[in-house]
Specification:
alpha/beta, 7-stranded mixed sheet, 6-stranded mixed sheet, 14 helices
Amino acid sequence: MNAPISATDLTFDGRSVINGKRVASASGEIFACISPVDGRQLAEVARCGAADIDAAVAAARAAFEDRRWSGLSPAQRKRVMIKFADLVQKNGDRLALTETLDMGKPVKYARSVDVNSAANCLRWYGEAVDKIYDEIAPTPRTALALITREPVGVVGVIVPWNYPMIMASWKIAPALAAGNSVVLKPSEKSPLTALMLADLALEAGIPAGVFNVVTGFGAETGAPLALHMDVDCIAFTGSTRVGKEIHVMAGQSNLKRAWTELGGKSPNIVFADCPDLDKAVESAVGSIFFNQGESCNAPSRLYVEERIKDEFLARALKLVPAYAPADPTRADTIMGAIVDKVQMQAVLGYIASGKAEGAKLLAGGEQALVETGGCYIQPTIFDGVRADMKIVREEIFGPVLAVQGFTDVADVVRQANASVYGLQAGVWTADINKAHGVARALRAGTVHVNQYDEDDITVPFGGFKQSGVGRDKSLHAFDKYTETKTTWIRIDSPV
């Protein structure tokens, strides 16, 4: 089956969306949006700077202050959010192929995962917002204390290139549903679907100025947004290095709330009493090679109990050929292209370091499909790694799996926790006591048991340690985009 629409059917408008209109950058500068699929230029995109951020924030502030959106009832906002979600689904084929061309992921997953997840997120928060009640405190009879949620105001959002639609929806959906105005800065590596979402938001009935998208580079566009004195909250997903800078900028400016979902180096622990070894193997391989390994929660550190390790690896290596990278616009491709040449070279550098430091290369390790002009890397597995190796310590963001054996429960938990990150983890065992005990001991925001990566919008996503601050998804996300107000009313009751 072919992709639903052809790449030749698509044309892209690379101008930003500010105050409901498509606009060029104030400077007139542009940058080329290059597809990692084959190296061709997709669009010329507005290279915005501080002046454009000022304009977008001013539009967002005006929209918030005149209450064109924040002043609507939750039920009214719900109806618009649901229409927004419906339009995302209606335009799903176009959005999916755009995502594939822009950042390299297989179109089958861009459609089934990214589009569906983004639409579901928008719909879920729209549905949720008129079902959240405020509180009345247990005061004496002489007082009535109301505890209410109010939108924080203008929310700045900066999202990464690996899941452009999903990461954007996780932030803009609760922020918009709560009544805020938003300025979104997508990654310069994959900006196109964010711009399309802004068009669909306007079509759905979100007023001009409420949802703005400003394109550009981190230092030129993202930093002015994080530093802006009229932005009340900044929500960021990306690297831990940049996340730290975001927190500094928030403090340097107006002490805006800063929520950061950052890196990961997630451990996946398989015990010898794993209830389904084939499932564990398929999950370990599929989860690290999904999205070309460009996932912050990818289980890139695999710990397998020694008495089953050889059998586990033998089964895993049989699965690797299915993940050979191919043209991601084909409907049967399950591993596509790395987002750009810079990231491809970074991943190849990590592979080279693994070889140099003495890890045993079992599969892959090379660039692939060089003749296409795209950015492809073979699915790669290393065995015999040590805790001090770069491929074990640092986030690679590519299709590279590092495997270690273990014999002792306490020791493998210690190794799993020996990371600056704490995003996710996996545990495979048929022993319920071991499952609970190890899950509680692991310092991670999510622990998967006898599966990896299963979840939905109802549960929070975020990490411990240097994996970030705050949570996306679930009702907890509203905490990031609302202020809690107490109104204390004195009652001089005659009775």
